[in-house]
Design goal:
Layout: E1 6-12, E2 15-16, H1 40-43, E3 51-54, H2 66-72, E4 75-81, E5 95-101, H3 110-117, E6 124-132, H4 133-136, H5 144-147, H6 149-160, E7 164-170, H7 183-187, E8 192-195, E9 198-204, H8 209-226, E10 232-236, H9 254-271, E11 276-280, H10 289-296, E12 300-306, H11 314-323, E13 329-333, H12 352-365, E14 370-374, H13 376-385, H14 387-396, E15 401-409, E16 411-412, E17 416-425, E18 442-449, E19 456-461, E20 474-482, E21 489-499, E22 505-506, E23 516-517, E24 520-528, E25 544-547
Parallel strand pairs: 1-25, 5-6, 5-14, 6-7, 7-10, 10-11, 11-12, 12-13, 16-24
Antiparallel strand pairs: 1-4, 2-17, 3-25, 4-15, 8-9, 15-17, 17-20, 18-19, 18-21, 21-22, 21-24, 23-24
């Protein structure tokens, strides 16, 4: 049983000449309708005052004369699908993140990690791994993804739970429990210096040619393993500086900084051609000019300290806002392990709730696509004790796209008809479809589906660009639907945003409460050619349907 709640209006269809926009279909049998159309037999072509109608299992056509039935098949119905403003959408390029990182202690035990977060993982979309280079390549040419069982189980656990991955690989040993850059790099002659937090651990001089050669070799292997957008959302290309945040770098002049950032940008782009790349957006130490060069090449912004009253000044917020929407935002909050720490990262005191409210407020004001739940103990406090804040970002952060209104013909006896669908995005961010790594791979498709099997019989590839859709605007898509080469029968008209690099399969969850067929959102039934029995089909309509101003014109 398909369930629908929508506003419906009726007007004459506008017939048009045939147009070859539909892909040539496979012929299928017509089957009984399973969709949500209002019974035109019930309404006919009479004027109806706006009101509310409760319909269950209405048979279309049973109360119509032949003349009335012919008239009904020449109508366009305008409907407004019920908007989904409550579900967490686990779409690529957005969402809540859980961290597994290795700084002051070893990488988390995978079994303990997942047992802690499992009751709360439903709101998350990404596992963000922040690990030293020495974790991923402890000895030259030997990689964690091939040999480290705990690391393998951690990654496999993310995938089995439907979480995509994100990475930061850092080389600075500040505040780490083990040397971040593998010892074999220094043994090969790379220059290093004693790290302030532990003089026994070395940090490399990042313009040293031996260091660069070894790191370049690692990035080639790393990209070969993880340049896969079906499992990886983004990779930090920061790498250098304390905690991989590109600051407190020893003996770096402005000229060396620019050269190093250009080297990193080029290196990451050559290794990750299909996965989003992020870069810290921060004025220290050399201003925004070098960072903007990387943003112009497609880097998305990443920034920490959200919610902080000390480390996140208004000028920093203004710099982020200035660069949106040309670059997207990965937001990180200022607070970690906040349940057990006496003070927050910015030396402010609790209460926790006030801190987390500031975090979400900052993220939404600056149109963040991502925000972090951070470490396992923080995940528990966020989701268990502050679930309304988690849901607030889940339903407003990132992008939230769907069809808002559709004008659809009840039938196409022959030739083709014009259709009109308006779209909207109620999230504060946007789909990064125009990013060079994604290269506009997500495309709006409309399809006729076999009502029995759900098989795509024919489709229209739209020319609209969903990556341009931002909050507060309506975007209209007009296209033609042809009956040519399609067996007469009743079909389901559906819409999806597909991945053109993955067999044109639906890839984006749409924000509508609509019946779905393998992530195709069904808009309505449509009759192609003459009805086989002339008596219409059974409609499965359950719910409240608002009928407004239906007039015989």
């Amino acid at each position: 049983m398909l369930v629908a709640s929508f506003v419906v209006h009726q007007k004459p269809v506008e017939p048009v000449k045939k147009q070859g926009t539909m892909s040539r279909p496979k012929c299928v049998r017509s089957g009984p309708s399973r969709l949500m159309w209002l019974g035109f037999a019930l309404l006919g072509c009479a004027s109806v005052a706006a009101g509310v109608v409760q319909l269950v299992g209405v048979r279309a056509g049973t109360a119509q004369s032949d003349t009335a039935r012919a008239s009904a098949t020449s109508q366009i119905v305008t409907l407004e699908p019920k908007w989904d403003d409550h579900s967490t959408l686990h779409n690529p390029g957005m969402g809540w993140m859980i961290y597994a990182e290795e700084f002051g202690g070893p990488l988390a035990d995978s079994d303990e990690f997942w047992s802690t977060v499992d009751p709360y993982v439903q709101e998350a979309s990404v596992l963000y791994l922040r690990v030293p280079w020495s974790r991923l390549e402890p000895s030259e040419g030997h990689y964690a993804w091939n040999e480290d069982k705990n690391y393998q189980r951690l990654v496999a656990g993310a995938r089995s739970r439907g979480l995509r991955l994100a990475f930061r690989v850092f080389v600075d040993s500040q505040d780490t429990h083990q040397q971040a850059t593998p010892q074999f790099v220094f043994d090969a002659g790379a220059e290093g210096y004693a790290t302030a937090s532990n003089s026994d651990l070395l940090t490399p001089v990042v313009d040293d040619p031996v260091f660069r050669e070894k790191f370049e070799s690692f990035l080639v292997a790393f990209g070969a393993e993880y340049d896969d957008p079906s499992t990886v959302d983004f990779v930090d290309m920061n790498t250098i500086g304390h905690w991989g945040e590109m600051h407190s770098i020893r003996a770096m002049t402005a000229e060396k900084w620019t050269d190093t950032l250009q080297w990193l940008g080029s290196l990451y782009r050559s290794s990750f051609k299909r996965v989003l790349l992020a870069i810290n957006i921060n004025p220290d130490p050399f201003g925004y000019e070098a960072t903007d060069e990387q943003i112009a090449a497609g880097a998305i912004m990443r920034r920490d300290s959200f919610g902080s009253t000390q480390w996140f000044a208004q000028e920093h917020k203004d710099a982020i806002a200035k660069r949106w929407p040309s670059s997207l935002l990965v937001a990180e909050n200022c607070y970690q392990s906040f349940t057990t720490r006496e003070q927050a990262c910015d030396s402010s005191f609790k209460p926790i709730r006030a801190m987390l409210e500031r975090v979400v407020d900052d993220a939404l004001r600056l149109r963040a696509n991502y925000l972090d739940l951070r470490h396992p103990e923080d995940v528990v406090t966020w989701v268990r004790d502050n679930d309304d804040l988690v849901k607030r970002f889940a339903t407003q952060g990132g992008y939230r796209i769907g069809p808002a209104r559709a004008s659809i013909p009840e039938s196409i006896a022959e030739g083709s008809a014009k259709l009109r669908v308006s779209w909207r995005n109620t999230g504060v961010g946007r789909l990064p479809n125009d990013n060079p790594q994604w290269a506009n791979k997500y495309r709006v498709n409309y399809a006729l589906l076999d009502p029995e099997s759900g098989e795509v019989v024919s489709r229209v590839v739209s020319s609209v660009e969903p990556g341009e859709w931002i909050r507060g605007e309506s975007y209209v898509d007009r296209f033609e639907l042809s009956s040519a080469d399609i067996d007469p029968g009743r079909y389901e008209l559906a819409v999806a945003i597909v991945d053109s690099t993955n067999d044109d399969l639906p890839a984006i969850e749409l924000a509508v409460d609509s019946p779905e067929r393998d992530r195709w959102a069904v808009l309505g039934d449509i009759q192609i050619g003459e009805s086989a029995n002339g008596n219409g089909q059974m409609l499965a309509v359950v719910g409240v349907v608002v009928v407004g101003s239906i007039t015989d014109r």
